[in-house]
Amino acid sequence: MFELEESLTAKTAMTNRSDIFLLLAIAGFGCLVGSIFIVTTNQSFFYQAFTPEAVMWACHHGFVYPIDKPQVLLDFLSGQLSDFSCQALNSVSQTQEPGLFARLQLYLTVSVAIAWRLLGVSYANLWPVYAVLHGAYAAGCFALLRAFFGRRVAAAAALALSISPVVIGMLFMLRDYSKAPFVIWAIVFLILAIRTAASWEAIAASGIAGCILGVGTGFRSDVLILLPVGFVFLGVGVKAAAHGWRTRVSAVAMFGVGCVVFAAPIVGVSFGGGSGMLAMQGATDPFVRFLGIGEAPYGLGWRYSDELTMSTIAADLSRNDPNWGEREGEPIRGVSQSLSRSTDYLFRWAPFFSADFVTHAIKSVLLIGGFEALITPQSLALDPAGSRPLWLAPPIPASLRLLLQLAGAAGLLVLLFRIFAKSPRQAGCIAFLFSFLLAYPAIQFSVRHFFHLEILSWLGMLSLIVVPTEWKAITGVKWRFSMWIIGIALTCSAGYCVLLALQDRVLAQQIAHLLALKREPVVTESERSEGDRVAWRLQIPSRYTDLVSGPIDSLSSRLPEVGIEWDVRAAADRLLITVGGPSCPAGEFAITFTYQKRPEVFQPLDHAFTVTADPTQKTMLVAPAFYRSTQYLSEISVPSSRRSCVLRIERIWGDSPLPSSFTAVLVSDWIRHRLHQTLWK
Q: Which end of the chain is less packed: N or C, by CB atoms within 10 Å?
């Protein structure tokens, strides 16, 4: 019988000749697959338009940022050309030190630069980078699978994962893909650290895991999210021998030191607090729809848009900060406060939506656990960031997708059951690690952020297959395991229910406070009819005229060439539109917000809000009006047949901790309705 506990220790998996041979063979297969992909497609996307330093260094011009980029360089970096001649850089006369983006993904940029310098500047010549990354990913999958399954099962599954349509599709997005091998191998060595009985092996494995995270940070910085999780995992999970606490402290210290040593060049130039913007974007309507969450009568943004999110942050933080503009960054090397202060800003109002964030995390666990249900046309069509799988499973009914999600969750429970039979301590630690890995993508739920976690779904599904062969060996702990799981489930469920009730209460208070603030009628320049719609032309408030007519900030059409927003200036008002009344026909209709735009606009903020009219009561729409140098709210329109439905258009005065991007459609008795999202629609 295959021994689960012994499958990933220094005495077996990593020193057994058969395992080493398979590891190298699978790595070689992964190298071949990665190389064939890039040579065949001759296309790649790793935000190279933001890192021309790689081309400059490859062409012996130094690791510098070119100020006056030739058009042919721009065409190559944008993917319009597959090859580039270094002679085109002879016209570059102005350069400066490396930009912020190149330093944030330093190791990836340098890897690309080295490949191009040795082989020539062409996307096909990135095959060494692709070979190493995909070979490491394939080998890492085998090592992780080998921790829980026999050699043949692990090898077959690793080969399948290395040619997974979702993973192969992600190879095009090199920067997003590059985190995969680092995350997988970090997990492997973290598990090795808590499996081994030898103190030095645990400390060494912890140090290696930290080094892997540190190097991975230079490819895709979000791998650093495993650092605090690794501290807890090792602090609790490393075996306690005679002086167990010393071993645990040493393991945690080595893990941290290994990470810091290699991540220091990246962390040293990064901007703190930028993850708040990502979480805000992940709470917008497109991500809620992709998660399959039951929507509430409010929202935190109607589209996945840097401009919407950063304008919200800038408008709210600069409202009482007259020196906002003076503290904004410089082009290429600086970063806007809309990024650097976004986490602090998020924490001001995120507690009002705490249950929603937990709901997103739970749904993320279910969806990634049943990964196969995600590679269907109806699922991936909702991905806000898009995806490029080689092929898709045929459309399947919603009930079958739900069944796959539940089967994935059941499989992961069976995996924990198998581990629990050998070591409850390991089961608890791995449950914590895997739960975090499955839940954290809810921050911004998109395939490009969690594709590499497909292996966790395979661990669960394969456990369902092999558990009958191990049943006699593990059945003795079934009651202990059941009580363990039930205890965890009851505790988590109770906490979740408390959060739901708390959010209903707290959010109701915030909305009531918002509606109680002073209001004034919105001044309109004219009312006109066009076709089947009636539109009101809005005046620009006098306090925003300088902003609207002022210089264009970094959120403009030039941003795709530069990369990181360094200067964001915006203002926002809250509008309250009341609809209904006896003359209003019942039913749904759209209230459209149209923005006046300059040619340099980056991401238009136009949107149509759906409201349901009822002649017997009034419905209120709360929505923002943004004012920026590239666009501002200029018009509100409704269908001509609904003109009589619009009773008032008002501006709300006063401060509210709710973000400016907050929207709500509230019926007369809104306070009696639930004010939280649900796991299913």
A: N
Cα separation of 168 and 161, whole Å?
Answer: 9
Reference 548, options 480, 446, 440, 626; nearest CA is 626
Choose the CATH number for 518-653 among 2.60.120, 1.10.10, 2.40.50, 1.20.120: 2.60.120
State residue 403's pLDDT score: 85
| Closest among 13, 211, 251, 218 to 101, alpha carbons compared | 218
Dihedral angle, C-alpha 374, 375, 379, 381, nearest 10 °:
140
Give residue for tokens 């505790």: 491
Token output for 554? 């970094």
| Tokens of residue 574, six digits | 């809250």
User: Which residue is it, tokens 């799988």?
Assistant: 389
Check whether 301 has a pLDDT greater than 90: yes
Task: Please report which helix (H) or strand (E) contains residue 443, including its range.
Answer: none
Decide: 295 and 681 in contact? Cβ < 8 Å.
yes
pTM for the model: 0.93
Residue 232 has pLDDT above 50, yes or no: yes
pLDDT tens per residue across span 314-323: 999 999 898 9
Residue 619 main-chain phi, psi, to 5 deg: -115, 140
* All structural domains of the chain with their residue ranges: 1-177, 178-270, 272-514, 518-653
3-state secondary structure 308-340: HHHHHHHHHHHCCCCCCHHHCCCCCCCCCHHHH
